[in-house]
């Protein structure tokens, strides 16, 4: 067993220690900046002495002083980049800060600087969507990729409410589990808000029409294009899984983890249980997550496999910020220091990286002196004493090691676990063992209590602690760990599973025109129960060689009643499925033919849409040969204008899926029916669907356009809607075009409206406005242009505020006019006030300037004082936002902070001089008294004895023979220990005890001498008496320092 004693650190000693730089503040690794604001890259560090700073950009040295737009804050490495009037892209790149002093170097993280971007939405044309009630619907957003990504939300006239039925996915798409008539809207709009630039862009409106239907719909699972089949997340990040289902009634969503439980304290559900969120992910969270969607008609499942990867760094780079040292060696992830000397102090930096990122770690090794440690090594039979000379001390940690070796029992810490694997795959049994390191272990594996066969199927790894089976063999496996003293063992069973054998002996019974019964005998399950049977058929008449799934039967069944269709030549086969997979298909059954009959159904998805003015295209989804029920399949197509007394017009066609009707009026509703027929009769009577003939462009423009200006950024427009016949199509809304000489804005108002609001206008601007009516074909002519003007507003902030030419009692300010005046600029308001050392603000002074003034010099200021300045512009509407800047009046760049250096104060210098004089007087007095009190001069002792450690000792009392003293072992009166706690010695390595009046050599109880330490060697040695009290590790360390 090993024990260690940690010596507490003396705070007074730590204050005087040199320190290498340490990074205390830095910007995030990914820095996205707003081009309207300055770039501020933080880099702060501490150290003794205070470090200096340098930067690299894109891997090369970045000379800050050569770029007038870049400022490094005094006493800091923080960069402030003024990008006003410059191309912000010029400052994009990878920046890295370095802080260094005479004791080492610290490197900050690499910071990638990128400009925020809000790209425009790509132009697209959205077709109107017409759906039946109860079906699912997905409205895609597809926003432009911004930096950072935009925030997505959907609106019509107001923000759309979300619930269990209507939800927004993580990618921004809008999902309807089932649609209802109230979902019909002409203007579903997806908005993208870009946070850095504070801009909002919108997608073109999407029109949705829901047709009423009485038919129900069973629940179907919607898997979001399988984007979550497999998902990888890094340890410590947030895991988000999404599951959206379609169905009627609206399904309920639930989550579970296969083979485990969800971590309760770190798990949350969002978006009405559709999003599973787990924070602070670790390796235990990996596995299969099952989403279940349930309504009264059934349940659907979806499994997402989650993999958790930790940042296990596979590359270690050690950087040494000092001269090369032959006693330094890198072994993998360890730095080994040998023969450490006082000049071996250095900063060691470890850069660990892999595909997911990197980490930096710094260590400062400060070698302070020499230290002798004694280690007792006790064995079972004898005790040995070893003297170890360790010449290093790392920040005052003193470790006293007492090594007592006793054999530890052999124990299996992790037993092999029961496993079920598929045939042909590998299996792993892990057997972790703890044993005494002095004993020689032997690992043995057994199978069914016998030795493993000596063949290549078995492979031992990690000194027989982990065993692989290249081809799995079922049985019981045992690991045995033997030593010369004891042993331990553990066992586990391996079960091999594989796909079931195919069913056999297929037989058809109870044969009728529309049904038949199929029976079979199941095959061997191979250690995995059969979950279900899949029955397939082949249509030898219409699709020979193609097997189609017909139905499924529970794994315990051996018979099925099959429903058949007319005019099909059937052949059946059966497949069995267990947890491994499907078996091979069974041999086909005997052939069974059904007789022809009239169609049982009509074509689906019947539509009537005009693609040009004056036509109507009727389309449908044709029946398959299997659905035809007989030969000579045809379609009878009928149409007539809605709400008219005209007879049905009909046309019979074959082998087509649409017809074109010409000569129709513009945008007129039609009733349409499509019926199937063959040589054996007609299908059921079809229901009529409504279609519309082709649209044309609107022929008229809105009249009586009126504009009401509410304020400098908002106006309201009113107009008289056009007559519906002049729309010549389905009315989609009205389009307003608002333009100035510099820009043009387009706003669309959906539906049949007569007014709308115009937000986001620029103050003090002249606008021209026109309105057009929209239908599915396009837009009509514009209304006469209407002109209006917005009133003045408050201006924006000044473009910049800089302090130039700072003097001892004056500062010169310069600023730029606002980027947006928003009116006639009336002037500027400047406020300034001093800031003391405790960040308290002094009285505020105010100055006003005219609009054409952009610079001013402030006089009669206090020297070495920090001042805070705030500036804003104003119009007749008021003052705009302020811009703030701080600056010192003094130009002394060596002052790293607002704190006053105490070492430069007069009273402190005087006090130090007085203390030094008093110490000098005391030393002189001690020297005089010491020369009078001893029996021999120091000079004689130095000449006679060059090394006190080799002097003979008297046999009777153990004292030094020539210099014994019968006086009490007491220190000299008036003697003082140096204030830093150290004792200095000359080149002869003499101890002060040898020159005292009978002072003992200080040994502790185990005989080790810890009271003698070397300091800086000098020609003239100042000495003092040792204390007579017993030594301790703390006192020894204080002396060492």
UniProtKB/TrEMBL annotation:
Domain of life from the UniProt record: Eukaryota
One GO location term (cellular component): growth cone
Extent of Basic and acidic residues compositional bias: 937-957, 1015-1025
Main location: membrane
Region called Disordered, residue ranges: 583-603, 937-1041
Localization per record: Cell membrane; Cell projection, Growth cone
GO MF annotation list: cell-cell adhesion mediator activity
Membrane topology: Single-pass type I membrane protein
Keyword Disulfide bond applies: yes
GO biological process: axon guidance; brain development
Biased composition (Polar residues): 1027-1041
Keywords from the named record: Cell adhesion, Cell membrane, Cell projection, Disulfide bond, Glycoprotein, Immunoglobulin domain, Membrane, Repeat, Signal, Transmembrane, Transmembrane helix
Task performed by this protein: Neural cell adhesion molecule involved in the dynamics of cell adhesion and in the generation of transmembrane signals at tyrosine kinase receptors. During brain development, critical in multiple processes, including neuronal migration, axonal growth and fasciculation, and synaptogenesis. In the mature brain, plays a role in the dynamics of neuronal structure and function, including synaptic plasticity.
Assembly mode: Interacts with SHTN1; the interaction occurs in axonal growth cones. Interacts with isoform 2 of BSG.
Protein name, UniProt field: Neural cell adhesion molecule L1
Organism in which the protein naturally occurs: Dicentrarchus labrax (European seabass)
């Amino acid at each position: 067993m090993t024990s260690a004693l940690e010596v507490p650190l003396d705070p007074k000693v730590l204050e005087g220690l040199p320190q290498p730089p340490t990074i205390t503040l830095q910007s995030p690794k990914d820095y996205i900046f707003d081009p309207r604001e300055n770039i501020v890259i933080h880099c702060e560090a501490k150290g003794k002495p205070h470090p200096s700073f340098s930067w690299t950009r894109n891997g090369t040295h970045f000379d800050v002083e050569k770029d007038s737009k870049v400022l490094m804050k005094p006493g800091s490495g923080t960069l402030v980049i003024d990008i006003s009037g410059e191309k912000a892209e010029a400052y994009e790149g990878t920046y890295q800060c370095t802080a260094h002093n005479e004791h080492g170097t610290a490197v900050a993280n690499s910071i990638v600087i990128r400009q925020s971007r809000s790209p425009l939405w790509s132009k697209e044309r959205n077709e109107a969507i017409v759906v039946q009630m109860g079906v699912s619907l997905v409205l895609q957003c597809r926003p432009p990729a911004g930096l950072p990504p935009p925030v997505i939300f959907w609106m019509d006239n107001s923000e759309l409410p979300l619930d269990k039925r209507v939800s927004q996915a993580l990618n921004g798409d809008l999902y309807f589990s089932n649609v209802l008539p109230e979902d019909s809207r002409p203007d579903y709009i997806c908005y993208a808000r870009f946070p850095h630039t504070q801009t909002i862009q919108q997608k073109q409106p999407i029109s949705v029409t829901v047709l009423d239907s009485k038919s129900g719909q069973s629940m179907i699972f919607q898997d979001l294009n399988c984007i979550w089949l497999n998902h990888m997340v890094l340890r410590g990040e947030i895991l988000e899984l999404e599951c959206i289902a379609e169905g009627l009634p609206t399904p309920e969503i639930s989550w579970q983890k296969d083979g485990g439980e969800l971590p309760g304290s770190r798990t949350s559900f969002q978006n009405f249980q559709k999003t599973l969120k787990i924070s602070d992910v670790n390796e235990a969270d990996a596995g299969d997550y099952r989403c279940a969607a349930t309504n009264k008609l059934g349940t659907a499942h979806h499994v997402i496999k989650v993999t958790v990867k930790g940042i296990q760094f596979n590359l270690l780079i050690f950087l040494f910020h000092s001269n090369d040292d032959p006693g330094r060696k890198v072994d993998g992830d360890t730095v080994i220091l040998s023969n450490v000397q006082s000049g071996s102090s250095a900063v060691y930096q470890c850069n660990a990286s892999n595909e997911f990122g990197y980490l930096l770690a710094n260590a400062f090794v400060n070698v302070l002196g020499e230290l002798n440690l004694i280690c007792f090594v006790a064995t079972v039979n004898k005790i040995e004493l070893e003297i170890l000379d360790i010449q290093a001390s790392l920040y005052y940690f003193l470790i006293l090691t007492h090594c007592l070796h006793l054999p530890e029992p052999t124990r299996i810490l992790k037993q092999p676990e029961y496993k079920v694997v598929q045939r042909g795959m590998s299996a792993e049994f892990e057997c972790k063992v703890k044993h005494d390191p002095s004993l020689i272990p032997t690992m043995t594996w057994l199978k069914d209590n016998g030795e493993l066969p000596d063949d290549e199927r078995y492979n031992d790894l990690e000194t027989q602690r982990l065993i692989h089976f290249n081809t799995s063999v079922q049985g019981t496996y045992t690991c045995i760990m033997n030593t010369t003293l004891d042993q331990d063992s553990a066992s586990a069973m391996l079960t091999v599973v594989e796909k079931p054998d195919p069913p056999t002996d297929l037989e058809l019974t109870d044969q009728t025109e529309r049904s038949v019964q199929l029976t079979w005998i199941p095959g061997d399950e191979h250690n995995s129960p059969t979950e279900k049977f899949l029955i397939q058929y082949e249509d030898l008449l219409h699709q020979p060689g193609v097997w189609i799934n017909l139905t499924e039967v529970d794994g315990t069944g051996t018979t099925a009643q099959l429903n058949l269709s007319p005019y099909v030549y059937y052949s059946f086969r059966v497949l069995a499925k267990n947890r491994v997979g499907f078996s091979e298909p069974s041999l086909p059954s005997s052939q069974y033919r059904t007789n022809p009959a009239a169609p049982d159904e009509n074509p689906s998805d019947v539509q009537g849409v005009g693609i040009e003015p004056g036509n109507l295209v009727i389309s449908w989804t044709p029946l398959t040969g299997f659905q035809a029920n007989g030969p000579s399949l045809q379609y009878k197509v009928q149409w007539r204008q809605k709400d008219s007394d005209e007879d049905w017009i009909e046309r019979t066609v074959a082998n087509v899926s649409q017809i074109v009707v010409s000569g129709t009026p513009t945008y007129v509703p039609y009733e349409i029916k499509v019926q199937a027929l063959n040589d054996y009769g007609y299908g059921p009577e079809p229901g009529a669907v409504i279609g519309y003939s082709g649209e044309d462009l609107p022929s008229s423009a809105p009249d009586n356009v009126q504009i009401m200006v509410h304020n400098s950024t908002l106006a309201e427009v009113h107009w008289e809607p056009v007559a519906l016949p002049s729309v010549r199509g389905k009315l989609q809304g009205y389009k307003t075009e608002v333009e100035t000489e510099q820009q043009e804005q387009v706003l669309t108002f959906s539906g049949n409206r007569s007014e709308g609001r115009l937000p986001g206008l620029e103050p003090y601007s002249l606008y021209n406005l026109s309105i057009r009516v929209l239908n599915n074909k396009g837009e009509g002519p514009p209304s006469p242009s209407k002109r209006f003007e917005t009133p003045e507003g408050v201006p924006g902030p000044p473009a910049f505020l800089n302090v130039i030419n700072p003097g001892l009692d004056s500062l010169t300010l310069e600023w730029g006019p606002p980027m947006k005046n928003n009116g006639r600029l009336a002037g500027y308001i400047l406020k300034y006030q001093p800031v003391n050392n405790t960040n308290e603000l002094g009285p505020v002074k105010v100055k006003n300037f005219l609009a054409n003034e952009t610079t001013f010099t402030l006089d009669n200021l206090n020297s070495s004082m920090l001042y805070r300045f705030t500036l804003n512009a104003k119009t007749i509407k008021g003052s705009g936002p302020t811009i703030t800047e701080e600056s010192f009046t003094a130009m002394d760049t060596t002052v790293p902070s607002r704190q006053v250096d105490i070492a430069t104060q007069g009273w402190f210098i005087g006090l130090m001089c007085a203390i030094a004089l008093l110490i000098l007087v005391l030393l002189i007095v001690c020297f005089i008294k010491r020369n009078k009190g001893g029996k021999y001069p120091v000079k004689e002792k130095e000449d006679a004895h060059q090394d006190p450690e080799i002097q003979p000792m008297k046999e009777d009392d153990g004292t030094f023979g020539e210099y014994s003293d019968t006086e009490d072992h007491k220190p000299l009166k008036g003697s003082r220990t140096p204030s830093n706690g150290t004792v200095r010695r000359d080149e002869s390595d003499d101890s002060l005890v040898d020159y005292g009046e009978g002072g003992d050599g200080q040994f502790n109880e185990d005989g080790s001498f810890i009271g003698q330490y070397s300091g800086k060697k000098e020609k003239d040695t100042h000495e003092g008496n040792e204390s007579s009290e017993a030594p301790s590790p703390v006192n020894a360390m204080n002396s060492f320092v």
